[in-house]
């Protein structure tokens, strides 16, 4: 279990951490490796770090310094392109490095807070993040009044669009994705992390968390609060931080003197901590742990906690070749409107928020169905996420039929509106190879509208 680091600073505190020289570069790495070998030979326990940065094919950019992570631009030249609505979210802007010589980049989706737009609240950070070696999509929501679960669902839809259908998809490594959001969007980032544990990182900025339970989050998570935030108080953010399981990498920062709107304009204090978090966990780049373990710069920070030493996922044993991703994503998406899926009803597009090109509006009759053909690399239990909308106040029950056998009856609760899409996660036993997964209503009320299935090995 990682050692827990808890530091608190108030104005005037003396920090001996600042007096310690930062040692980096090839010579210091060789010295550190040699020293570890001597200590291990003496019978002393040694913490084994992930592969050195030079062995990491995800590493992007030069060795970082305190000055470089505080700059408002990294080393990559960037460009942007706009995205229209109709892809499961309300449109947005993609920011990306123009360099195509370093393989694919990790991806970050960002959503603003309640009633806010990306242009007004978040656009200042788009090129900033991209210049450090990420493809970033900042989104607007289908409705400015969307709740945190709807914002989380749209973050995931934005990542799927970015990695599968966008004009820059060949620049993105779909196995390395992350989410971030402010206020209601921060709650959305936590909802997205709970729904998709394959995410590499999540960040909540003054997160208003209503629909997620951070006790169920398994994604490396950073939460930030403002000292003077009366909307989402620091104590509420700390409470959600403490609920994140001890085995999950996490960090918490409270910004001195900041209010609820601290992420809505150029904020160097926020960015010099957010960037290392993404670099560590999206790029598995341990060169950046020096800034968070221990916290390297206390200017503007009132308190800090983390699960140091902040160990990212292992890097692949072989380097990627060109644009090939060495670790393809384990999750597969199956759209209800795309063959070989079958919808006994109509494929509709009249309710916004769906992914792909439409959704299945099955007939309101017992025996109607929405059926998917899914593939499994090996026999075993898989996690199946059914994305649906039920604009009524009455739950709609359906039989879950796998390879012709009814294995469960599932209740699809009302979602409040036909444009509010949520995901229900189920466990299903699959055979190796091709399988059919059918949802068939048990009453004449029919099914909810079915958008897609997400299937991943357990």
TrEMBL record:
Residue segments, region Disordered: 1-23, 312-334
Organism superkingdom: Bacteria
Keyword RNA-binding in annotation: no
Keyword Transmembrane attached: yes
Entries under Pfam families matching the protein: CBM_6, PETase
Xref: SUPFAM superfamilies: alpha/beta-Hydrolases, Galactose-binding domain-like
Membrane spanning stretches: 31-52
Keywords assigned by UniProt, alphabetized: Hydrolase, Membrane, Transmembrane, Transmembrane helix
Database matches in InterPro entries: AB_hydrolase_fold, CBM6, FrsA_esterase, Galactose-bd-like_sf, PET_hydrolase/cutinase-like
Residue ranges annotated for the CBM6 domain, each copy included: 332-456
Family designation: Belongs to the AB hydrolase superfamily.
Protein's name in the database: CBM6 domain-containing protein
């Amino acid at each position: 279990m990682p050692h827990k680091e808890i530091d608190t600073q108030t104005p005037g505190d003396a920090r001996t951490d600042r007096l310690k020289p930062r040692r980096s570069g090839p010579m210091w790495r060789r010295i550190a490796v040699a020293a570890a070998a001597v200590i291990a030979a003496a019978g002393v326990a040694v913490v084994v770090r992930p592969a050195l940065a030079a062995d990491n094919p995800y590493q992007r950019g030069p060795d970082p310094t305190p000055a470089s992570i505080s700059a408002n631009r990294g080393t990559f030249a960037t460009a942007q392109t706009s995205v229209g609505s109709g892809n499961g979210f309300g449109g947005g802007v993609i920011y990306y490095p123009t360099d195509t010589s370093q393989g694919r980049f990790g991806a970050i989706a960002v959503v603003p807070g309640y009633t806010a737009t990306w242009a007004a609240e978040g656009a200042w950070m788009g090129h900033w993040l991209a210049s450090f070696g990420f493809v970033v999509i900042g989104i607007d929501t289908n409705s400015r009044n969307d709740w945190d679960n709807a914002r989380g669902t749209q973050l995931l839809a934005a990542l799927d669009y970015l990695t599968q259908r966008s004009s820059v998809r060949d620049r993105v490594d779909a196995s390395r994705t992350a989410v971030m959001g402010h206020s209601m969007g921060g709650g959305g980032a936590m909802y997205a992390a709970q729904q998709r544990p394959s995410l590499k990182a999540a960040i909540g900025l003054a997160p208003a968390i209503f629909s997620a339970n951070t006790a169920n989050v398994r994604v490396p998570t950073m939460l930030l609060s403002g000292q003077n935030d009366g909307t989402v108080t620091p104590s509420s953010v700390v409470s959600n931080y403490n609920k994140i399981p001890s085995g999950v990498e996490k960090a918490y920062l409270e910004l001195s003197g900041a209010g609820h709107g601290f992420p809505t304009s150029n904020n160097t204090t926020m960015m010099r901590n957010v960037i290392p978090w993404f670099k560590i966990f999206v790029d598995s780049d341990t060169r950046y742990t020096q800034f968070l373990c221990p916290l390297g710069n206390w200017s503007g920070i009132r308190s800090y906690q983390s699960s140091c030493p902040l160990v990212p996922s292992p890097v692949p044993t072989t380097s990627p070749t060109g644009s090939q991703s060495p670790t393809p994503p384990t999750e597969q998406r199956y759209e209800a409107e795309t063959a070989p899926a079958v919808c006994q009803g109509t494929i509709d597009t009249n309710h916004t928020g769906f992914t792909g090109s439409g959704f299945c509006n099955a007939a309101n009759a017992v025996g109607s169905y929405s059926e998917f053909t899914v593939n499994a690399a090996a026999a075993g239990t898989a996690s199946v996420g059914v994305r649906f909308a039920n604009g009524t106040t009455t739950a709609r029950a359906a039989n879950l039929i796998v390879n012709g056998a009814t294995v469960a009856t599932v209740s699809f609760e009302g979602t409040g509106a036909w444009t509010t899409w949520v995901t229900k996660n189920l466990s299903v036993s699959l055979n190796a190879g091709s399988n059919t997964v059918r949802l068939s209503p048990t009453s004449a009320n029919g099914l909810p509208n079915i958008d897609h299935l997400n299937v991943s090995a357990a």
